[in-house]
Amino acid sequence: MSRKWLIKNGTFVVLEPGQSVIKGYMLIEDDVIKYVGESCPEGEEETEAFDGSGLLFSPGLINTHGHAAMSLLRGYGDDMELQTWLQEKMWPMEAKFTSNDVYWGTSLSVLEMLKGGTTTFLDMYDHMDQVAKVVQESGMRAVLMRGAIGLCPEDVQQMKLEEAVQFAKDWHGQADGRITTMMSPHSPYTCPPAFIEKFVQAAHDLDLPLHTHMSETAAEVQQNINDYGTRPAIHLEKLGFFSRPSIVAHGVHLTDEEIEILARNKVAVSHNPGSNLKLASGVARVMDLQKAGVVVSLGTDGAASNNNLDMFEEVRLAALIHKGVSGDPTAVPADEALKMGTIYGAQSVYLQNTGRLAAGMKADFIALDTDQAHFVPYTDFISHMVYSAGPKDVKHVWVNGAQVVKNGSCITMDEERIRREAQACFEGLLSR
Amino acid sequence: MSRKWLIKNGTFVVLEPGQSVIKGYMLIEDDVIKYVGESCPEGEEETEAFDGSGLLFSPGLINTHGHAAMSLLRGYGDDMELQTWLQEKMWPMEAKFTSNDVYWGTSLSVLEMLKGGTTTFLDMYDHMDQVAKVVQESGMRAVLMRGAIGLCPEDVQQMKLEEAVQFAKDWHGQADGRITTMMSPHSPYTCPPAFIEKFVQAAHDLDLPLHTHMSETAAEVQQNINDYGTRPAIHLEKLGFFSRPSIVAHGVHLTDEEIEILARNKVAVSHNPGSNLKLASGVARVMDLQKAGVVVSLGTDGAASNNNLDMFEEVRLAALIHKGVSGDPTAVPADEALKMGTIYGAQSVYLQNTGRLAAGMKADFIALDTDQAHFVPYTDFISHMVYSAGPKDVKHVWVNGAQVVKNGSCITMDEERIRREAQACFEGLLSR
């Protein structure tokens, strides 16, 4: 028999043209939304219903770029020059990461994300079996990939490629379909062209999308020009990268020509406003990308450069920064920012059946407690969610039809143990 | 007999050179901090102590510019051109505000601010007796002033000036000293020079500081040049405004000469990053102001242009934006951003005995719950507070030595009633 449950008296974020919210009912069966509408769905008049009064139901937020295990380095290096930060702080510590560190670092991040209303995250890192294990146990949805840096001997390159392929084979479609995978060479500036081409071939062979970092800093763009005579988007197009469904992270420094390349190849961009600001990388040309038809979603990047994994903050930053920097107060309006954090996120990571509250979509959704001062008056719930809400307004979270956060507590994870183990991992990294 | 209480096992944000936090004890007697230090204060070994384990104690945040009653218009108009927003949305509604609206709108804001860790706010509005009443009842600290727009007949101008003076006389030093007042002509572009001069004279007579909006938008600066042949800071200096202790809000569009004028006259600037971004006013020259020696603090502005009153967000925006826009990742480091939200805030509103945890300061402080994923690992509490924390991490709040928020609930205000009355006020404004 199928699990079925009905929500009544709820306010549901649908973001349809002319209708941003619906007040009424939502019906879930197993892992799928069967109905969202103003009246009770037919035949369900006698079904016992969950009272959604005082709750705003939204699609779960989708974090399209990050490195979850890096939460172990939260606050370990701030307010520094990028190269100093990488060379003196991040890389020496990351080199010491064991699979145990990745397990607990990822657990810490998944806990923070779930409680903060994120239901899907993309993760590019190492020791990915551990990440998949956390996803499996926690009930979250994730798009996972072994990120490979190619600045190493050919046999090590080959080993990394095989790891990436094996990981994808082992885990794609696992955890009741909550895990999907991608192929992911780290970036054009850390991967020789031939190495990138091997990942493109593997993505073709496995029929998977591709992900990489691209044009985060002006310096890496210049290096690409020095090394390969051209800018990163042109370079990646030549290597066949965009012949696959793909998503690039950052895309801060782009020419008009590169934006046209991304649009023509239907490449999605994961905009990471918090991380880009904190590392002083710059401000991405989000309005130009959107005008060209590029799907722009949002990511937190790793917690070491953010320093939280709060997707409400990324949604709000997307809505605020581009207004302030362009001088246009109509830039990235609230509904567009929220779509970047939900439906465009789903499109970016090639999970077309998530990111919206509508019949036929996977039941990944969150309930915000609107009985709070910063949601009053009840003028515009989309505005309130984007400009006023925060991660701790999330009261309940469901992924794939199953509740994972209830009354603000994560019911699938041992919160206290995760904090303790993550702290121990950090101390271990410091002492080794 | 004096009230006395001791906190043990706490982590205290002191932001002293070379020492950002102290782990140990804090002693409060009545409304004053008597001691902060690693060891138990002498003679208090037998005193029963409050266990501060798992709590980060910080000075309360200080919001140096706003219009609290405007929370009634939260989400009523977003993503619009400034003039359309003002003329079609804000001004028609504000013209209908009664003292009842101001009472409940301010209550809504004070509730949000207190629960979010703000212990002092500056408020410039109308019906200020109502605002003072809310401050008196809620236990908050505030710097209040009747903001006066001078685009009206002379008799109305005179009435506003008299109201402002009377308000200051009635309320300065009231509510156990929690209320102080200033004189506040609204702005150079809404007040004729002679009207501003009258406020300056009143500030001299009453020995009060002055506050005004200045150079928020490029358009108002241009209007100042058109009307008076000079830019706002030069104009205000000529009118004697800076002969009093003063604080200007926004200061987005400033020349080097104007920055020098502010520095020479020791004028404080309330930087409002969230509002400035949302209204697309621009990005203030915060680093240049600080380099020149100007005290820069933080304000939310009214909730209609923010849209919350979350000072953690303003602190974080101050730390993030100036890095991203300048390209310098060392700009506005975490400790500086937190000082802007605390000690510089106190200096800006001329409350020199608040804004720090140190012996002799007023006991205005907050306790954050650090037993949460986004505070792990325990690397750097200042970084965590600035880059990762949010308003709902605030567990307890004390103002003037008295607890006002306990376990996340405001114990001095009726939360449910305030939400209900504020909603009713909004609906009344819509229907009138």
Commentary on this structure:
The structure is a homodimer of 432-residue chains. By secondary structure, the first copy, chain A, is of the alpha/beta class. Chain A has two domains: 4-60 and 354-410, Urease, subunit C, domain 1; 61-348, TIM Barrel. Chain A has 15 helices and 18 strands. Chain A has helices at residues 82-94, 99-115, 128-138, 154-171, 193-206, 218-228, 232-238, 256-264, 273-278, 286-291, 311-326, 334-341, 343-348, 381-387, 415-431; strands at 4-16, 19-29, 32-37, 49-51, 55-59, 61-63, 118-125, 141-148, 179-181, 184-185, 210-214, 246-250, 268-271, 296-298, 365-369, 394-399, 402-406, 409-410. In chain A, strands 1, 2, 3, 4, 5, 15, 16, 17 and 18 form a nine-stranded mixed beta sheet that branches. In chain A, helix 4 (154-171) runs parallel beside helix 5, helix 7 (232-238) runs parallel beside helix 8 (256-264) and helix 12 (334-341) crosses helix 14 (381-387). The longest helix of chain A has 18 residues, at 154-171. The radius of gyration of chain A is 21 Å and the shape is globular. In chain A, 63% of the residues are buried. The mean pLDDT of chain A is 97. Chains A and B meet through helix 2, helix 9, helix 11, helix 14 and helix 15 of A and helix 2, helix 9, helix 11, helix 14 and helix 15 of B.
